[in-house]
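Box 4.2: Ligand-aware structure prediction
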Amino acid sequence: IAIELTKHSNLSTVDFNNIPFGRVFSDHMYLADFVNGEWINPRIIPFGPFTLHPANLALHYGQSIFEGMKASKQMDGRPVLLRPELHLDRLNASAVRMCMPEFPEDMFMDALNTLISIDKDWIPTVEGSALYIRPYMFATGEFIGVQASNTYRMVIFTGPVGPYYNKPVRLLAEEKYVRAAPGGVGEAKTCGNYAASLLPAKIAKEKGFDQVLWLDAYEFKYIQEVGTMNIFFVIGDKIITPATDGAILKGITRASIIELLKDEGYEVEERKISIDEVVEAFRNGTLKEAFGT
Ligand SMILES: *Cc1c(COP(=O)(O)O)cnc(C)c1O
């Protein structure tokens, strides 16, 4: 990795006790380009804009995928990442679905470790905060016409964040719009899924809710997830979460929470759960809790 360090760190301008989500960016970013069938020119440079061709394929046809992960500090101050290899697996699964090249594991780990160690002072230590890491890949082909690009860019930037939500979230079960159907791209962390969710989320907000609770695309009956997170229900002494069926984003926090809960001796069921089952459990008093991951 070629490294060019910034001459003007912005670190001193950040109030780590009051960090808005997604608006503060660390000093450096990682770039690599996919040209002639290989990933080349891995580099870390000062965080900042890059230029795009007006016919950039990603802007027109949506070949763009991303990940969201976090780094924090151990008690001894060493940076730690949460399950980065699972994030790369998912990035590469998204890449396959969107007809994009996979990114090699050795390059990914090298990129993360180098970038995080250069910007380690950006990792917040305030309770509930972390260094958010945004790896993403997009087409850089410069022509019009619906086809897969031959060239791509991989980018990783980071920024300190506080909690995404800092209060309980009110959800509206959506009965008109759908997020994803099996066979579609709901399992891919690809930009179009989020664009498609904005209008229903806006309508939900106007009705006094924070987010949409997505139901299945065939019957509007079975719960899928929330636009930004997977969902769990505590009913009686069981913890229930929708089984991933091709239309649900396979959250790494979801998988980790399931493992931790089972470890602690809780009974966790991954299965179809209908909105009616949740309403019924609420009415008969067995719904104890609902949470998102
Ligand atoms: C990213 C994302 C999640 C959560 O995934 P994690 O790996 O747990 O961060 C859940 N649902 C959707 C739609 C997402 O985009």
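In the box above, the bound molecule is pyridoxal-5'-phosphate. The chain has a mean pLDDT of 96.
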